[in-house]
Amino acid sequence: MGPTKIMIIRHAEKPGLYGGLQYNGINAVGTTDETSLVTMGWERAGGIANLFYPTNNVFQHAKLAKPDFIYAADPALKKDGDEPSQRPYQTISALAAKMNLPSGQVNISFKKKDFKKMVTHVLTLSGTVLISWQHQDILPKTPGTDCIVHQLMKQTGTQQSTLQQPVPSGPWPAPRYDMVLVFDRPTGTGPFTSFTPVPQLLLAGDLSTLFPA
User: Fold this and answer.
1) pLDDT digit string (tens) for 92-111?
2) Cα atoms found within 13 Å of the Cα of residue 117, Cβ hemisphere only
3) Beta-bridge mates of residue 180
């Protein structure tokens, strides 16, 4: 039996312009680091901890659930020139700490470009899985480009026609950090039976508008 629910989020806010102001990256101890989240991103990371593990056990949306396993792109520096991905792990770090998850249940062993292998590994698990990754690899950058969502559907034999709502076919909108993509299959085997986009609604400016199909 494989996972019954897979939830995917983009890492939180990275260095850039927000409201006309330049935000720089900082690490967990406040040191400037352009591979890290900005202050707004760290705020989102704190909100994500409560989004997926609410203290009162009442979830903001019926499709959300406490993850049994969390996956994030490997944050370590690489000798082969692969750019480090601090932000996906930083985004789920507060959640992992709040849940007190054992190290084996927070998997950071896959580099961001190895998302196909990551999906294969995820599908060997049972329960609920949360994936935190860079947005360019969650949905296709351009038509036909491989991505995490395509691999989830391909490796489970899922067709758009079997889902209650269509999966977005275009890229993840660059300005958006505020969405959770949820795939469900109650039996834990075979194709997914439903796809649900869930707005996070954690920070001022978060939108309830769904991505184009």
Assistant:
1) 999 999 999 887 789 999 99
2) 10
3) 9, 198
